[in-house]
Amino acid sequence: MKFKSVITGASVVAISALALAGCGSSSSSSSSSSSSKKSSSSSAKTTKVAKSTAGAKMKAGTYKLAEENYSHGYKTEFSITVNSKGKITKSDYNQVNKKGKSKVDDTAYNKQMKKVSGTNPKTYQPKLNKSLEGAAATGNVATIDVVSGATESSKTFQNYAQQLIQAAQKGDTATIKINNGAKMKDGTYKLAEKNYFNGYRVTFAITVKNNKITKSDYNQVDKNGKSKVNDAAYNKKMKKISKMDPKTYQPKLNKELEKSSDPANVDVVTGATHSSDTFVLYASQLQNAAQKGDTKTISIDNMTFAD
Questions:
Q1: Phi/psi at 71 (5° precision)
Q2: Pick from 121, 150, 178: which residue ends a domain?
Q3: CB within 8 A of 173, min separation 6: which ones?
């Protein structure tokens, strides 16, 4: 499965059909193959860098992110370098132990994971980095494939890459600290996109109590604040094309997050892949905010791209 999200949008060519179908080709956890049944790597991949049509261009500089806690002996360190043209020229995603040794160089770990899941850090880490330096170089996270056998690490990469891109858009070079594995603090955490795509933008809020997400409110609203759920014409047309509609998938996604309290356990809704992936990405970022207890609304200067 290719990760696609509203942050990156879809091609302006035939966007109506693609958007309605929800098939535009959107966690904070360590490497695992446990959720590989939810996603698989796409075999076809372009290296063409798409042109951004909305959202601020990334500013030149080096942007860093670091997990604060070790999981199974490793934590993530991640940096991207952006040139004067707003393109990512270097992606350095790594998982290191307390001695600073990369998981790539852990022979025993690589051998065991390869045997169990068919891939290993020596394979997927360089592959993910290459994807961000290639077709995703202008911030088009939608082009990043989930690596089969390393689903959770891939989704973590997507989440962290997006946070680094957001920092680069602002020119904020302060290291992003991720309090991974920490309990979520009580409170309400909010996120909102700035730019509209096909007339809608995402607003999202979660309420946390006793380390549980007790309420999830993911929505797509127009300039009048009207929810896509209430757009009868849109729902009817999407239902006809993909046998799914916002009236069905939005409540389903919210309910799944409230049930599991973990974005990694939210399944993609058939017929609404695009929105499902966006939901998981943004839920992961809200989870990170809740782990830090940061209730400031996250403003997403979401990008859209043309072929």
A1: -130, 120
A2: 178
A3: 61, 62, 63, 64, 167
Sheet holding 75-82, edge to edge: 88-96, 75-82, 61-67, 176-178
Same domain (yes/no): 95, 135: yes
State pLDDT tens for residues 125-138: 999 999 999 989 99
Could you tell me if 266 and 279 are in contact, meaning their C-beta atoms sit under 8 angstroms apart?
A: yes
3-state secondary structure of 144: coil
pLDDT attached to residue 47: 59
Q: What angle do CA 39, 200, 258 make, to 5 degrees?
A: 50
Q: pTM for this one? A: 0.83
Q: Are 89 and 125 in contact (CB under 8 A)?
A: no
The answer, yes or no, to whether residue 192 has pLDDT greater than 90, is: yes
What is the domain extent for residue 173? 15-178
pLDDT digits (tens, 9 = 90+) for 251-280: 999 999 999 999 999 999 999 998 999 999
Amino acid, single-letter form, for residue 115:
K
